Amino acid sequence: MKKEMESEQAVEIRESFASIYNEISKKVVGQEELVRQLFCCLLCEGHALIEGVPGLGKTLLVKSFSEALDLRYSRIQFTPDLMPADIIGTNMVREDETGGRRFEFFKGPIFGQVVLADEINRATPKTQSALLEAMQEKRVTVFGENHILQEPFMVLATQNPIEMEGTYPLPEAQVDRFLFKLIIRYPDHRQLLEILDKSTEAPSNLKPVVSGDLILGFRNMIRQVPVASYLKEYAIRLVEGTHPQGSSSPGMTAEYVRYGASPRGLQTLVMSARAMALLQGRFNVSYEDIRECAIPSLRHRIILNLKGEAEGINTDDIIKNIIGSTPENG
Amino acid sequence: MNQEKAFQNFIQAIQKRQRKEAFKSLALHLLLFLLISILTILVLERWVDTGLRISIQLKIATSLSVLLAILLVAFHWKSPGRFLREMDHRFGFQERLGTSYEYLKKESIFREKLVEDAVKSLRSVNPEDYFPKRSRYWLPGIFLLTVLVFSLLINSRQSADLKNLIGISGLNEKSSRENQQNWSDNPGIRRPQTETGRFRELSESLRDLRESGKSPREVKESIQSFLQSITVQQDQLKRKLREKLKEAGAFQQPEVGKEDDLLQYDDRLQEFIRKLKSSFKGEVPSELSENLEKLADLEDLKDYLDETLQKLDREPPQKEGGDDADNQPRKEDQELAIGQKRDNTDDSSPGGESEQKGEMSIEEKVALKSKGIRSDPGEAEQQPERKQHEDEHVSTLPGQTESEWDSRLPGLTGTPDGEITKLKGKTGDGEWYRSLIRSLVKTDPLSSEEKAYIREYRRDLESVLHREEIPVARREMIKRYFLSIGFSNIDEDN
Q1: Shared-domain flag, residues B341 and B310
Q2: Of residues B89, B95, B109, nearest to A7 (C-beta)
């Protein structure tokens, strides 16, 4: 009976996404794929790094997303002088009614459920690492006291690909902790027109359509979505294709890649493919799901070598090349 | 649960169908490979002498075909999982079937939904399309290949052996019986087909020669020259063969006979070969076997050309062209002309002189023959030669008159003298055969310098021949040699 209920709940995931997107699209124009990927990230208990030039609506998207999910939203604007305590929170001396003084913990913005870490690369590595620890452990430790973050918890960090001066690019090890790296691209002509209309008219208020509890229920199902063994093999071959020393790696990888994706990359690839299958209304993972998730889940895990950097090679192209040269039936 | 049952039933059905398809595929591939093997043997036979008997070649080819067909079927054999994955790919089921098959034995909260989804997908497709359809070009392709193989088989030098081996000897009863006889007598020796094998090509070449615009006399001369050169070749071959036989110690075998037998054995060739084979206990050395085979071929070639010459002799003379002798009307022609004249004069009075004498024109005879009525039974008895000639004429050109027959022998329109006439021959037969074919080529008229040179050469040769004592057995051969190189023509030119 429980099984039946769970499988019925799986059908709801697709409907939930549809309603979330409908709600978000009241404020955000287009970006369906991006919203799906964000939702996928949330279902997989992951975090996303969003990259895009200023003014493309990153903040608006994240805020709308949290509003539609009925999750607590908080924003941290990263600056070079931002301290870890500004993120996590700090113990402050507080006088009680009896006149006694004691330390009381004041929660920082990390205690939100959807945390927007805006321009994460502008803060110092020390501050960045404080955030990343919270992302990984889902808790913070202040003066030896653990504080659990409320689930569902998700960090959406943004970074600007231009204006690299005065920034602290995230170390590879830290970038690896993001499930997806998403790129926001310029809207097309029709979308621009729509953006113009929506932003200059009376703002519409979003209402929450999916609760945090429902999201937690969805999360439990994701891990049980069936993946056939040959699809797992395919995912492994794709990840192996990112390794420059691999015997099956395509020429482009060997030429331009210094380090390929880690096993964590493989885990996130299969996990996100499972979520993506449910979002498509299927109860099994397909090749298409794996291919769809390959770029956002692997693009930030591939580190180019000097030649690749010098020639301005895009990791997306490398992944596309790997997908193109990896047969389904290995 | 019902959906799971349905899915399992489907898997059983595809396993059953796969076995059936595998048998079909095996049969088709086997047939295809066999046809290709026979085709390869037949084609190779024209250029390469493998030195293997055709039966052995066929056995090897059959074994390889069976092996290859089994390997191919085994290679294409699909497990149910693989088959379902292919179906997923073909119909765009997005791995529903493959995953369902894997998760039939695994615990998952999604198993039921997954199988239900898979069955729903299966029902969306016509069951006839579950299995990939065989290309529609398969059967016509195999049919065309079969036709090609059979046509080559009929023209093959080894066709009798092949036909006997693959059990289609009924195709040409007469030649098949003959060949079967030859085969049983001399299994190591391949005999040419006089009607369906290489001589068919030769007969085509002769027909081309006749239609090339040369006068009957020239045609006869060409054939005679060809015959002479065959005789020379035959003598050379005999000499070579005798040496080889001596080397092999054949004449020391009691069954074979004496050396002289070899030089006079034209009529007893088969007997000689049989003796030779029995003396070597069925295994004639390959070199000897080849030479004997060539010799036998030459004999057949000679017989065939003799027959052709006899036919040409029986044919009516040409009205135009040729020399004076050809322009002289033959007796039959004179009679024919008289008969025609009489027919013309007696048109108004039926039952004239010709009717009284029982003589009829060719046209009347042809007409009667076509109706199955004999013109004059008595005539056949009285004039057997003429009757034979007329029958021959009728059978050559059914339904045609004498004048039409003459028009079939036109002023010669083919290759000019001296130009190489390409005759159809088998390259696999080697130089000896090619040289025979070349002897049919009419050479340029000799220049005066060349004639002088040949005359001088002839004088030298004659002086040598006068000095030397030539064995009786060789005299005929030497004479034929000089005839073949055209010494007599030099005299005529002078």
Answers
A1: no
A2: B109
